[in-house]
Design goal:
Chain lengths: 342, 362
């Protein structure tokens, strides 16, 4: 079966789609009431709220799909602000001609990811739009999430202090490389790192480290995140290129297309800023999880930006010490990371 | 790390200022990415050359691409870098807002797949690049012909590196040696630079793209320049042979022929372009008209834009009055700011904000 405009019309087809495809897979006590809004118990702690929209093509890629991404993306944003995710709402925009079997797989994957992350999808909406383009029919998902901040720690970039360590949870670039490979029809073993960052984030929040900031490293890559942290804190970050983990195959892929792993999107990596004395403890906590196995200290926070002897005239927020021994500005991403043409 | 002594020699050089041109945009990017300017003597000035295909593509070409993309039933397929290059009226990106159909491709095969799936539509592949990319389009044509696809044509802006280097040498921009492009050299071969080295008395070193490759090549250039030897050295033997890649060259020869071509900011340079041969003109979407003798009308180039001088290595980007002010990657006025390989875009991303004008900074 393929999606038609009737599935978004609000009539019988819409009801069938909602009941048979969505509700059956995502059901829980809140969703089952099927009212205009979910009524939720009041949490004990302050709530955090976040939303994110997912438009990835292709919708299925090695290591994940848009459904898993839509759950993990919002869940991770909540964790990064120190909140345990509780509830999600999901809005779907489907294009006409979409295979319902693809939609079923995506929703199955959302259900599984939500179960694993311990969140309920409590509200939803579906719209259908016409597919006018040359590309196969796609789907877009928005998720909004509510979590509660049940720890004393309130991580935020403004908390970073000179002398703090910058720790990265694992190798860079896998998600973007996997999606791009799929799009280009390149055969390799690269899979997306799409993952729920809850377990390692919870370990840090509960683990007694002086945690200043937490940021997931998504669009814009590590370079952009470090710039955001440095600017928000009014401090400078010096990163060490040779400490930054990148998988061999991702590195080769990037070399081939002229991409830089420091600017590539990830969906299961985060950066934390911790007190320097807690660096080893942080690394040990992270390395206890498979997705933190290659966690590394990749830089440190320094005094506010100032003139730099190697880089005359510059007061850049982030400096990279290159593997070769040079130093350069590591700027935030501008525009899109496009492959080279020569 | 390179051999002992290499870094010391480059860092400790205290002689008269030497200007070396890295011809290829990928080299410019690698030099910044590895922080090489911070590792060598300020008396060794690295100047970027005309090796970014996006940057040298004239406005007339963009205009033709826009015109085609706006035709009903036509989709223009292009690499992402071309999207924001200003035409004399609009860029392809802006034309999309006017209803132009433009598809981004990572390889021409994607456009061919679309053409197969949609025989009712016409596809025009924007074939932009140097000798490195030309064989890719030749192979695409080979496949178009083999499959008998009737709905794909090429709009070419293919450029040849030797004629433009001759132009750079002729205009005497004070370059003491050249870091020859590694990728182009895999196709044309290291020996292709010999006539230039002999005629103009300048050394050429073919370099790879790793940080150490570049340091080694700069060291070789320094030694050659100091001893006044106008040699050609292949410092990238893992990928580059003296004679190049005859199979790739043969494929290019089969479909393309050299002709005069317009370079943005430089004007027309004899023999510096590749055009589809007469017998394949049915696959051509008007490349000759937009490639030469089509100097953009007055006002075609943005006022104050100094891309031409940047491309020739006469000035560094901060010396252009538009740099960082009116011209940024998000709102590019000139082509050198648009491409990931463009000198201005690279300087914008990597070089200090308030650097003194001149090649030593960064």
């Amino acid at each position: 079966m393929r999606i038609t405009m009737a599935h978004g019309g609000g009539g019988q087809e819409t009801r069938e789609l909602v009941t048979d495809l969505f509700q059956r897979r995502l059901n829980n006590e809140f969703l089952a009431r099927m009212e205009d809004a979910a009524v939720l118990p009041r949490p004990e702690h302050p709530i955090a709220m976040s939303t994110d929209t997912f438009v990835v093509t292709p919708p299925e890629f090695p290591g994940g799909d848009i459904g898993k991404l839509a759950v993990c993306g919002t869940v991770n944003d909540l964790w990064m602000s120190g909140a345990r995710p509780l509830y999600l709402a999901a809005g779907f925009v489907l294009q006409t001609g979409l295979e319902s079997s693809l939609l079923e797989r995506v929703v199955d994957s959302m259900a599984e990811a939500a179960r694993a992350a311990g969140v309920n999808i409590v509200a939803g909406d579906t719209k259908v739009v016409e597919n006018m383009g040359d590309d196969p029919a796609g789907l877009f998902i928005n998720t909004a999430g509510i979590g509660c901040r049940c720890w004393e720690i309130t991580p935020g970039a403004v908390n970073a202090r000179a002398g703090d360590a910058v720790v990265l949870s694992g190798p860079l670039g896998n998600h973007q490389a996997a999606v791009l490979s799929r799009r280009l029809g390149l055969v390799n073993a690269i899979t997306s790192d799409c993952a729920d960052l809850g377990p390692p984030a919870e370990a840090l929040l509960s683990g007694g480290v002086r945690l200043r900031a937490l940021r997931d490293v998504t669009r814009g890559g590590l370079a952009t995140v470090l710039n955001e942290i440095a600017v928000a804190a009014g401090l400078r970050i010096e990163a060490e290129e040779k400490e930054i983990p990148v998988d061999g195959e991702v590195e080769k892929f990037c070399g081939l297309l002229g991409l830089d792993p420091l600017y590539m999107a990830n969906e299961g990596k985060f950066v934390c800023v911790v007190a320097a004395a807690d660096t080893e403890k942080t690394l040990a906590l992270l390395r206890a999880f498979p997705l933190g196995a290659r966690a590394a200290r990749v830089g440190w926070v320094q005094a506010p930006p100032a003139a730099d002897a190697d880089l005359p005239g510059a007061e850049p927020p982030v400096i990279l010490r290159t593997a070769l021994g040079g130093r350069r500005i590591l700027d935030a991403l501008y525009g899109e990371g496009l492959p080279r043409i020569c | 790390m390179p051999e002992p002594g290499v870094l010391e020699a480059l860092r400790g050089y205290g002689g008269p200022e030497l200007r070396f041109m890295e011809v290829c945009g990928t080299h410019t990017a690698a030099i910044f990415r590895h922080g090489i300017r911070s590792m060598i003597s300020p008396s060794l000035r690295l100047v970027s050359g005309p090796g970014c295909p996006v940057c040298v593509t004239p406005a007339a070409y963009i205009d033709r691409a826009v015109e085609l993309a706006l035709e009903p039933g036509v989709t223009l397929a292009t690499f992402g870098d071309m999207m924001k290059v200003p035409g004399s009226r609009v860029s392809l990106d802006e034309a999309k807002g006017e209803g132009a159909r433009v598809m981004l491709m990572y390889a021409p095969g994607e456009a061919l797949a679309q053409a197969r799936a949609h025989p009712e539509r016409q596809y025009v592949v924007a074939a932009v690049g140097f000798e490195t990319t030309a064989p890719v389009y030749a192979l695409a044509l080979e496949q178009i012909r083999r499959e008998g696809l009737r709905n794909v044509r090429l709009l070419t802006a293919l450029r040849r590196v030797i004629p433009v280097l001759r132009y750079v040498c002729d205009t005497d921009s004070g370059i003491h040696g050249f870091l020859a492009p590694g990728h182009v050299s895999t196709v044309i071969g290291a020996d292709a630079f010999r006539p230039l080295a002999r005629r103009y008395g300048r050394p050429f070193v073919v370099a790879g793209f790793g940080g150490e490759d570049i340091l080694r090549a700069l060291y070789a250039l320094l030694r050659l320049a100091r001893s006044g030897r106008a040699d050609v050295l292949n410092a990238y033997p893992a990928a580059v042979r003296r004679e190049g890649n005859p199979a790739a060259l043969g494929c290019v020869e089969k479909y393309f022929t050299a002709g005069a071509a317009e370079w943005r900011g430089m004007g027309e340079i004899p023999n510096s372009g590749y055009y589809l041969r007469e017998e394949y003109r049915e696959y051509d979407a008007g490349s000759r008209a937009s490639g030469a003798g089509a100097s953009p009308e007055p006002g075609g180039e943005p006022a104050g834009c100094k891309c031409g001088e940047v491309i020739l290595g006469r000035i560094t980007p901060p010396e252009c009055p538009l740099f960082r002010g009116a011209c940024t990657p998000l709102r590019a006025r000139g082509p050198c700011m648009v491409s990931a390989e463009g000198t201005c875009g690279i300087w914008y991303r990597y070089a200090p904000r308030r650097a003194a004008a001149g090649g030593g900074a960064g």
